[in-house]
Design a protein that fits this description.
Number of helices of chain A: 15
Structural class of chain A: alpha/beta
Radius of gyration of chain A: 25 Å
Mean pLDDT of chain A: 94
Strand order of the largest sheet of chain A: 2-1-11-10-12-13-14-15-16
Distance between the termini of chain A: 70 Å
Largest interface: A-B, 80 and 79 residues
Helix content of chain A: 25-40%
Oligomer: homodimer
Low-confidence stretches of chain A: 539-550
């Protein structure tokens, strides 16, 4: 027997209609790519999003067609979010920081019909102009006065000119809530980027969840600044969550340095913000150097990668409540948030910090499972670890236009690729990536745990741990280190370093000393190459010889 | 094109599974009907709800069958909520305060297959025992030691005995999210009670919305006390919202007097509560009389009927943030909540109060429309008024097993029966019921507004305004008053009373003086009978004669 409630689909356009009707005069403030601060209201956003919708119709797009964007966080990007998804197209946000070949690949793979591009990113498109032949238009998100001349892309369209000619009368279509609304590619360290195709339903449910008190805690008294880019998993849902609750929205444009952010937050009375640790480090350092404080900021959400615990402490000293959030492109992104429970409130700060430094506990609607090396659920003791799997209404069930991926091998679940612990309260801590964990005799050894211990040794400048194939155990851990000038490190030092700190079978079998460890462009250890170094080094060579590879 | 997210239905069982997995040790505290305080955890709730599910299966119920409850707020009622809805049955909460004939009607109309009843309400069922022949079982929600002897109902089953024999191993079925999950009857002043059939989807979406900062603002640091009964629109969603966020849940059982509530709140560290003005008046008066304060309570949600503004002020003086919520059984219930916006924060208290005294502004997902007397949308000026219509995923599209109702006459909308104003920020204020508004010359006159003005006159003890048929205007307002002893009230007084306070055409044509105004059992004016008094009184008789009718 079915309930007798109204059939009201969850749609992105409903978010805009709500803000237009009930938060018409609430402000949206943007630092523009052109320079000046721009301010208008949700009513203005709604009016211009309708112009965008009409302009897209006029380009001859069909329902489900992808509308690509390469843009910073600002009001025009917001108009595209709602104008495209709201009218039945798919808003495809492209990360301009990817390699140009990847951008070419993504535009082609998504079959984008039109690209919208901020002034800053026109040179990227010029560089790949040859690969952009099939598009109906490339629209520069600026006004006529700021339109660039482009030899490589002679037919650039001006955004303001385009929408000036479009009507602001538009009835948002009533779509199926499972219709696609957004597309975002994730670029792993291997293989081509993979597209995650969000639905209206997943977008709305995730945005409601993000606004809850234990996640971002958003309301109509807030001024919310989305610092995480709108090309990173839809700025973690903030462009949707803010209009749902009627919060003022503050957009930083391209300026993410400490001085610019602090100035913007103070000027606009920002109460809540969210972004990655790198950006916050810049902000905190600039504030320290200039003796600045926050007068309005109350909460900060930190995600993308784990913040160092000292960052949590630094925000608290500034009177700001920091909260960690964990997610992936495939999870819309939020699956975990680190809000403490009632039972933790009376803990002393030094006992709160280790909990706050964890990635967090599950949001309602997102279900997790942690499978140990034997494929069975691990004990929820905060120490045992296993592979993190997730499912829920805002988790991807497959990638766009791709073969089934190994991440979806377990029926009904998505394998995050993270190896984690979980405690009895549901707090999850990432200990490694699945591909980096050392699988020894059926047990898993966290490379990160061994690296952190090695990193504290006075002789070691940088340490990596990888698995080396082993006939008896499958794999055994090997420590690879770059030493500080004028120091030594022997096998005896290895034993001494680890004994008593970890179980005996987890202690690396061997140590290899190198001049320098290989890194990715963003500074992460290149484990694949380090594994090759270890293989080349062979198993018989003793570090007592102080062998230096490379 | 469809999105590629997982097909994860929104289910009541998911709420319980979330709390069981991630808030296992969080407490549920109940004042029992038997007397003592009972405490256990979400893990215990989940275990016993599974026993309930197995026991219901054993009774031979089929999917969609209704499980009736007549019970206070407590842990066993909670087990029934999840045990019945979670396993595919419909949890039908029955209001024990209704007339016995209505309860008989409701049990028969809902075709309840089994009734669960608190000790306090066994006498109600005994009184209607003749009408309960078709039930598979009547289960008393107590243990063997407290089981009553009943002549009228000789085959009463003991709840604890029943579930003691049931396994706590149960896999919650994966249902369609549009399956019915709950049933609640609303009793108007006319006609038979009408059933609203909630779905899993509507229940989950509403519970998520209720937890948002601008509604109840619920999180894992809260201890939430559901004072509004679980037989009143599912205690406004709190039994679902608390486990969604992992809040401690505190249930008052039958004791709703000021002393009991204050004691419970203090003892259990309650931070947030919700209920009707009558209960809060009792609590506030008792606290005043005994010089008591709150040490943990931070927020109170007031709904069911509009609180007098002084109640808002009294809560604030006690350091508690009061918030009004508006809803109906047909709207799950919440559609409006009175949280102020950022722009209101700096207003002085006397300018905040009139806003806080309004019923509130729309929650996301609930859309409103206010049609003036001409059927067109009214200006959003906070003064013009019209009929309030509503739609959304947690609004009823029709009543259970009933003919289409006039409330659903406008396609796609539910007519609330309220006449309201709305301001530019979306704040709604109820000015009358549609059936009580006086329709004069195409304009609507609020009977409540005229009554409030009359109520302030020194001679008037109680006032009512109703419409009298009028050939030229359709209807004209007539004031009907009970005077204070030894006072007079003439037509001249009538003119003087209203002149300058309202537009001239709204001033009542006539005044009728009565010994006493007729009321419903719950103290509301019986407008239908008052209209008859006015008709009997005729239009030619002058109040200057001091005519007394009845």
């Amino acid at each position: 027997m079915f309930g007798l409630m109204m059939n009201a689909p969850l749609l992105v356009s409903s978010i805009l209609r709500h803000a237009e009707a009930y938060h018409a005069t609430t402000e949206i403030v943007s630092r523009t790519t052109e320079g000046p601060i721009h301010r208008y209201t949700y009513a203005d956003l709604a009016r211009r999003a309708k112009k965008v919708a009409n302009a897209l119709q006029r380009l001859g797009l069909k329902q489900g067609d992808r509308v690509g964007t390469l843009a910073w966080n600002g009001y025009r990007h917001l108009e595209l979010y709602f104008g495209s998804s709201g009218s039945g197209f798919v808003c495809h946000t492209i990360n301009p920081r990817l390699f140009r070949e990847q951008i070419s690949f993504i535009v082609a793979h998504a079959e984008d019909k039109v690209l919208f591009v901020d002034l800053s990113f026109v040179p990227i498109l010029e560089a790949i102009a040859e690969t952009l032949k099939g598009l109906k238009a490339i629209v520069v998100m600026t006004d006529a006065a700021n339109m660039p001349e482009s030899g490589a892309l002679p037919e650039l369209v001006c955004y303001e000119t385009m929408i000036a000619g479009a009507s602001d009368d538009f009835d948002w279509p009533v779509l199926d809530e499972n219709a696609a609304s957004g597309l975002c590619y994730t670029s792993g360290t291997t293989g081509d980027p993979k597209g995650v195709l969000y639905s209206h339903r997943s977008t709305v449910l995730h945005a409601m969840a993000v606004a809850l008190p234990d996640v971002m805690s958003l309301s109509a008294v807030d001024a919310v600044s989305a610092i995480v880019p709108m090309f990173h998993v839809n700025a973690w849902g903030m462009p949707y969550a803010a209009p749902i609750v009627g919060a003022k929205l503050v957009m930083p444009g391209p300026k993410l340095d400490g001085e610019s952010l602090h100035g913007l937050f103070e000027q606009e009375g920002v109460t809540m913000t969210a972004g990655v640790p790198t950006v916050w480090l810049g902000l905190l350092d600039w504030m320290d150097a200039h003796g600045k404080k926050f007068t309005s900021l109350k909460r900060v959400m930190i995600g993308g990668s784990a913040p160092p615990p000292v960052m949590i402490t630094r925000f608290k000293k500034l009177g700001v409540d920091p909260r960690q959030g964990w997610g992936m492109t495939e999870t819309s992104p939020f699956g975990l948030a680190s809000a403490l429970k009632a039972k933790h409130q009376s803990l002393p700060p030094d006992q709160k910090l280790p909990l706050e430094a964890k990635q967090g506990r599950p949001l309602f609607n997102v279900e997790f499972r942690v499978d140990g090396s034997d494929g069975k659920p691990i004990p929820r003791d905060g120490r045992s670890f296993g592979a993190l799997l997730v499912r829920g209404p805002w988790v991807a069930r497959r990638y766009f236009n791709s073969e089934p991926s190994p991440a979806h091998e377990v029926e009904g679940w998505f394998n995050t690729g993270d190896v984690v612990t979980m405690d009895e309260d549901g707090f999850v801590q990432i200990v490694d990536r699945t591909k980096d964990v050392v699988k020894s005799g059926g047990e898993w050894i966290s490379s990160i745990e061994l690296e952190n211990i090695a990193q504290a040794h006075p002789s070691i400048k940088e340490a990596a741990v990888v698995g080396r194939p082993d006939e008896r155990w499958g794999e055994r851990p090997v420590l690879v280190v770059q030493l500080k000038p004028g120091t030594n490190f022997s096998r005896d030092d290895l034993q001494e370093l680890y004994t008593g700190k970890i179980s005996k079978w987890s202690i690396p079998d061997d140590v290899v000393i190198v001049d320098e460890l290989p890194h990715t462009a963003t500074g992460k250890l290149l484990k694949r190459e380090i594994r090759e170094i270890v293989l080349r080094d062979g198993s018989g060579r003793s570090p007592a010889n102080e062998v230096t590879v490379n």
